[in-house]
UniProtKB/TrEMBL annotation:
<protein>
    <recommendedName>
        <fullName>Glycine zipper-like domain-containing protein</fullName>
    </recommendedName>
</protein>
<feature type="transmembrane region" description="Helical">
    <location>
        <begin position="24"/>
        <end position="42"/>
    </location>
</feature>
<feature type="domain" description="Glycine zipper-like">
    <location>
        <begin position="2"/>
        <end position="44"/>
    </location>
</feature>
<keyword id="KW-1133">Transmembrane helix</keyword>
<keyword id="KW-0472">Membrane</keyword>
<dbReference type="Pfam" id="PF26273">
    <property type="entry name" value="Gly_zipper"/>
</dbReference>
<keyword id="KW-0812">Transmembrane</keyword>
<dbReference type="InterPro" id="IPR058598">
    <property type="entry name" value="Gly_zipper-like_dom"/>
</dbReference>
């Protein structure tokens, strides 16, 4: 999960700074979104954590 968050934060900061004119706002929003997406992606990539019926 930490690796997914790290990748998401890095991509989010880069994209956020490029999209928004104010770099501080772009980086802050990019990090928040990147961490959320990275965490969700890493959770979905591990099916053994899901309950099996």
């Amino acid at each position: 999960m930490a690796l997914g968050m790290a990748i998401g934060v890095g991509l989010g900061a880069a994209v956020g700074a490029a999209v928004f004119d104010n770099a501080a706002i772009g980086i802050a929003l990019g990090i928040a979104l990147g961490a959320a997406v990275g965490t969700a992606a890493s959770r979905r990539s591990r099916p053994e954590d899901e309950t099996r019926e």
